[in-house]
Amino acid sequence: MTNNMIRRLIVLGGLSIIGIIFAQSYWLLKTWDIKDKEFDQSVNIVLRNVTERISTFNKTILPKTNIIQRKSSNYYVVNINSAIEEKLLERYLYDELFKQSLRLDFEYAVYDCNTNELVYGNYCSFDIVPEKELNKKKKLKKFNDDLIYYFVVRFPTRESFLLANRNMTLTLMILSILAIVFFLYSMWVIMEQKRLSELQKDFINNMTHEFKTPISSIKIASDFLSNDNHIKNDIRLTKYVQIIREQNQRLNDQVEKVLNVARLEKDSIELKKEIFEINTTLQQIINNESLKLKTGNITFVPIGYAIMIHADKLHFVNVIANMIDNAIKYSDENPIVEILLNEVQDNVLLTVKDNGVGIDNESQKKLFDKFYRVSTGNVHNVKGFGLGLFYVKNICNAHGWALQVISSPGQGSKFIITIPKYIEA
Questions:
Q1: 413 and 350 Cβ atoms separated by less than 8 Å
Q2: Cβ(180)–Cβ(31) under 8 Å?
Q3: CA end-to-end span of the chain, whole Å?
Q4: Cα–Cα distance for residue pair 46/54, rounded to 1 Å
Q5: Pairwise CA distance, residues 67 & 151, whole Å
Q6: What residue ranges do the domains of the chain occupy?
Q7: What is the DSSP string of 280-298?
Q8: Where does residue 113 rank: exposed (0-12), middle (13-18), buried (19+ CB within 10 A)?
């Protein structure tokens, strides 16, 4: 994932988070406001009905204005032109709250003209509450100097009552918060992994480039030694020089693989496509690879006439060489590798077949992953970094070629690449 892509994800994710928070906050406040208005309307209806019933019972006339005043979110003052009997008021409040389906706790107090104070009435609940809550009384300060007969009602559980009707909203909000936290954590993990990945790539690139200089120096020195007459006349020294050259070449090949993979990951490989004949090219590759064999052989079954393809020749050669190299490494002491070409309509099927140990289904799923190597049990003679087939897969994808694997343990493996033929317009 590129830095630009990560930046876009962070920006889009940040905007999404802001949008989610804004929307959730807006709807939460909007819902709260609506519920609060519904609550206030229901309480006004309840208190209006209570005052009318008290007025009817006392045979008095209600004030024309400001009968019910809301002093705070859960505190109401009710003005009435007659004396108020506590037990009657409590019963009326119970009845009217029940009719409006407001089954929530309330407490009330009544203004006493004789003492000029509010006298606490009772804490009332539709549920079972402690005896001390039902019977406790206490004096409150006088609320309004301009009112003669009035009572006050407070709803201490108003907030919990409103919240109880918004479980779904709160649940969605909690889920949104969890999603936001998960997104932020994921972004942090991605950034950390990106940093570590870049650190690893930089280290590999620097290491492999540093290797190139001593490898070149060793090659020059080994070539000079191999041409020295004193060395040529000494069989033992000649053998040692040959070992140096072979191992130096092997090291150089591994470094090139690492560099190629590093270029792939940076998307910096540019395919330089050209038109070339596939039979001839494959024969040249096989001739070069055959020189590495001490036992076994590589056979080639070409198509009987020239077939042209349009591809990057350098990468094509590297792909086939990697596949042959893998076929040899994962075969027994006497490797037999077959290269077959078949023409199917407008495509060429290039098959690399071996008599190796084979690959089980589980390993085939990870076969083209970077650094993955098929297990060979207790045998540790298979060398490499696990980059060859990763490179093969990426080059095939870059060309738009299909790559198929057919294999089973003990039956060898068959890699098939489908390459479009070049047809002149």
A1: no
A2: no
A3: 38
A4: 12
A5: 11
A6: 3-164, 168-265, 273-420
A7: HHHHHHHHHHHTT-SSSEE
A8: exposed
Task: Provide the pLDDT confidence category of residue 148 given band limits of 50, 70 and 90.
Answer: low
CA dist 294 and 91 (Å) reads 107
Q: What tokens appear for 126 in the block? A: 């539709």
Tell me the percentage of the chain whose pLDDT exceeds 70: 85
Cα–Cα distance, 359 to 375 (Å, whole number) = 9
pTM: 0.50
Return the top range by mean pLDDT from 1-15, 56-70, 157-171: 56-70
Question: Options 3.30.565.10, 3.20.20.70, 3.30.420.40, 3.40.350.10; which CATH number does 273-420 get?
Answer: 3.30.565.10
Asked if residues 325 and 356 have their Cβ atoms less than 8 Å apart, the reply is no
AA identity, residue 176: S
- Give per-residue pLDDT as tens, 249-291: 778 877 777 776 666 665 556 788 999 999 999 999 898 888 7
Distance CA 31, CA 13 (A): 26
Cα(218)–Cα(315) distance, rounded to whole angstroms?
Answer: 26
One-character DSSP codes across 396-421: HHHHT-EEEEEE-TTS-EEEEEEEEP
